[in-house]
Amino acid sequence: MITKSEAFNKNQLKNDLPKIRPGDTVQVYQKIPAFTPLKSKAAGGKKEGEKERIQVFEGLVLAKKHGKGLTATITVRKVISGIGVEKIFPIHSPLIEKIDIIKQGKVRRAKLYYLREAKGKKARLKKRE
C-alpha cells in the first residue's frame, strides 16, 4: 500500500530530465523571482514576487548525489574571470525549468572534485562517444 507521503513524493518527480552524469557540461535554466518595487494595490501595482525570469547557469557536472529520488542533486562548476563558482541544484525542484546537456565528457570517477585544483590541460576532459 502506498502512503500519502510516497504518493506526494512520486507526484513531485520530474519525468523529462535527461540522463545527467559527472563530466557532462550542462545548462541549468533556473527561475529567479524578478524584483519589482512594492506599489500600492490601489494604484494597480503588482505584488512582489509575481514576475519571474530565467537565469542560465552553464558548467561542468562535478557530482551527482542522493540517487534518483526527490532529494537528488547535481553540483555544477564554472569558472568566471578566473574564479571558480559552484552551485548545487536539486534536480526535481520546481524552480528548475529545464536542464540541457551541451557536451559529454569521458570520466572514470563518480566525483570530479580534483578538477577544483586542476589548471590548464589537466582540467580538460575527453569527449565521450
In short:
The chain has 129 residues and is mainly β. The protein has 1 helix and 7 strands. It has a domain at 18-36 and 58-127: SH3 type barrels (Roll).
Write structural notes for this entry.
With 129 residues, this protein is mainly beta. The protein has a domain at 18-36 and 58-127: Roll (SH3 type barrels). The protein has 1 helix and 7 strands. The protein has one helix spanning 4-12; strands spanning 25-33, 52-65, 73-80, 83-90, 96-103, 105-106, 126-127. The strands form 2 sheets. The protein has a 5-stranded antiparallel sheet, with no helix packed on it. The protein has a two-stranded antiparallel ribbon with strand order 6-7. Strand 2 (52-65) and strand 3 (73-80) form a beta hairpin. The N and C termini lie far apart (43 Å). The model has no long low-confidence stretch (mean pLDDT 89).
Draw up the topology in text:
Blueprint: H1 4-12, E1 25-33, E2 52-65, E3 73-80, E4 83-90, E5 96-103, E6 105-106, E7 126-127
Number of helices: 1
CATH topology of one domain: SH3 type barrels
What is the CATH top level name of one domain? Mainly Beta
Gross geometry: flat
Average pLDDT, all residues: 89
Topology, number of strands: 7
**Poorly predicted residue ranges:** none
Rg from C-alpha positions?
19 Å
Structural class by sheet pairing and helices: mainly beta
Sheet with the most strands? 5 strands, antiparallel
Q: Give the strand line-up of the largest sheet.
A: 4-3-2-1-5
State the CATH architecture of one domain.
Roll
- Straight-line distance between termini: 43 Å
Instruction: Characterize the quaternary organization of these chains.
Output: single chain
- Tell me roughly what share of residues is in helical segments: under 10%
How would you spell out the order of helices and strands?
A: HEEEEEEE
Strand content: 35-45%
